[in-house]
Amino acid sequence: MANEIDNGRSIHILLVEDNPGDRRRVELILDLTSEVYQLHTAVSIQTAYQILTAHAIHIILLDLTLPDSQGVQTIRTLHTRYPHIPIVVLTGLDDEQIVADSATAGAQDFLMKQEINASNLWRVLRYALERRKQEEELRQSQQAYRRQALELNVLNRIISTASASNDEQALLAATCYELAHFFGALRVLILFCHQGSGVVIQAGHSQNDLPPLPPPATVLAMNDQLTAVLIAQHALICPTVEGSLQQFLAVPPGSRAIIHPINLENATIGFCVVSLPQTYALAESDARLVSMVADEVALGLTKMRLNGRLQAHANELEKRVQERTQALGEANEQLQSLDKLKTKFVSDVSHELRNPITNLSLYLELLEYAKPEKHAQYIAVLRNQVRRLYSLVEDILTLSRLEHSPPDHLFQPVDLNYLIQQVIGVHTPRAQSKQIKLQFQPMSPLPPAWAEPNQITQVVTNLIDNALNYTAKGSIIVTTNLLTQNSQTDLLLCVTDTGMGIHQDDLPHIFERFYRGSHIDRKTMVGTGLGLGIVKEIVIRHNGRIHVSSTVNQGSTFTVTLPTAPQA
Which phi-psi region, left, alpha or beta, contains residue 107 (left: φ > 0; alpha: ψ -120 to 50)? Predict the structure, then answer.
């Protein structure tokens, strides 16, 4: 509605004001502008209701002192009855409490009568309309999300029924029930083809006040609408159910319907028919849901009929549907959080880069004016800051490469024990210099992992490097093993240290990018806060899992689960 001002269309303004002088003043101010509008005036709340009933009002200018309504209650009454029309309060009192109460009651804005001019009046009108437009867009978005959630619930319940039973009739009855309650339908029927010449009722759900259906054995000859669906092989939205089908369904004349084929093994075995009241506003989203439900019914029937021979195939199809459902849910969340994540990442990167850059600038200045005996100390600090900056940039580039490369890029069978042994050899001198016992206890033989070697090398390197950073004495033990659950075997990699441990309030955040523990000395324990984030990103891309358990002052154990390579 706010765009109507810019598009040159007339804006309908309702001025509710019983004072002739104030009313005339607002009328004159509105006439001073070139804006296109129509002004409706009311001297009481009852007159305002009559105008609101008769006209499509876009915005209300409201005086709080009327013959039949007083104060903030006037706003509350109007806002309750017409919640989608913005209200701008006109008041002669400069009272902050009135302003606050007006906003609480539902007013979009307010104007002091003695301060009204053409500029601020139209500015307030524009802002109020724009806010209302944004609220309406948000409301529509929320409605769309709610509908998607309801659709997902319907699909999930139908999928659960198909998974839990081998009873075809139970699946068809549950499908009719779910669709009938979702749409508020007159009837939902599943019709099966009968000897190639017609259809019979296989399952259904109806409103209680409808006439009874024909007996189950009654055959309906294929009419034009069913034939059209059979040929087109997609949903048909019927603004009116035609003669023979309308009589067969026993629904009132003028009823609407959505018809979708049910296909099994490359043949149409029947139809899903959703009969709706004449007043129902049909949309493409309705047909899409019926289409998805019909697909799920077909999948369920396929699973039931093929039983053991096609069990694996049916499970894979079901898995794909669940993944699609999960992807829809994740997409909804990502749409809401994408801007927030981008802003946070830019802020974190800026913050982490600023510290070493600031130190570089500071010590370069100190080096320029310092005494010669201080040069070595300042140069050492500069080198440390350059190394820190280099490490931070490399970690950021690593995350970027991970995010933009295909998930299974260069995956191959990997000898995990050999790879770990190489990383242990690189870190042994550092461990010896800190008098820490670095041990590797492999399980042998160990089946190969399905992984990208360089990425898994980085996982092991980051975990061992992290353990060395936070272990002052004692030992670090790296082990490999096998984990078998539900006939699936995975590889286990464990890195256990006797270091300082992780506080319970830090544990939920340690895999977040740029997060560093709140109980560590950041001056002596340098790091980018990206190492564990990279580890988790790589593990997830390998369809693996990572878990940490820790006790303060006793040590931590990081456990990584990776899939084994598929057998040739």
Answer: beta
Contacts of residue 457, defined as CB under 8 A and 6 or more positions apart, other chains included, come to 419, 422, 423
Tokens 């007043």 belong to residue: 279
Could you report the per-residue pLDDT of 173-231, keeping only the tens digit for each?
999 999 999 988 998 999 998 876 788 888 989 888 888 888 878 888 888 888 888 88
**Dist. CA 411–CA 448, nearest whole Å:** 12
DSSP one-letter string for 294-323: HHHHHHHHHHHHHTTTTHHHHHHHHHHHHH
Structure token digits, residue 270: 């029947």
Q: Please give the structure tokens belonging to residue 538.
A: 């790589």
Name the residue among 494, 517, 442, 433 with its Cα closest to residue 468: 433
Whether the model clears a pTM of 0.70, i.e. scores above it, the answer is no
Q: For residues 270 and 297, what is the distance between their CA atoms, to the nearest angstrom? A: 11
SS3 16: strand
Amino acid at 431: A
Residues in contact with 3: Cβ distance below 8 Å, sequence separation at least 6, in sequence order = 133
Cis peptide before 216 (omega within 30 of 0): no
Written in H, E and C, the secondary structure of 334-372 is: HHHHHHHHHHHHHHHHHHHHHHHHHHHHHHHHHHHHCCH
The long-range contacts involving 36-40, CB below 8 angstroms and separated by at least 24 positions, are 36/5, 36/8, 36/9, 36/10, 36/11, 37/10, 37/11, 37/12, 37/13, 38/10, 38/11, 38/12, 38/13, 39/13, 39/15, 40/12, 40/13, 40/14, 40/15
> How many Cβ atoms sit within 10 Å of the Cβ of residue 213?
15
**Residue keyed to tokens 């309906």:** 220
355-360, long-range: CB < 8 A, 24+ apart: 356/385, 356/386, 356/388, 356/389, 356/392, 357/389, 359/385, 360/385, 360/386, 360/389
Q: In a 3-state reduction of DSSP, which class is residue 428?
A: helix
Render pLDDT for 220-270 as a digit per residue (tens, 0 to 9).
888 888 888 888 888 888 888 888 888 888 888 889 899 999 998 888 889
| Distance separating alpha carbons of residues 429 and 434, to the nearest angstrom | 9
d(CA 168, CA 339): 46
Say how many residues make up the chain: 568
Cα distance between the two ends of the chain? 64
| Residues 546 and 558: beta-carbon distance below 8 Å | yes
390-428 burial code (b ≥16 CB/10 A, e <16): ebbeebbebbeebeeeeeeeebeebebbebbeebbeebe
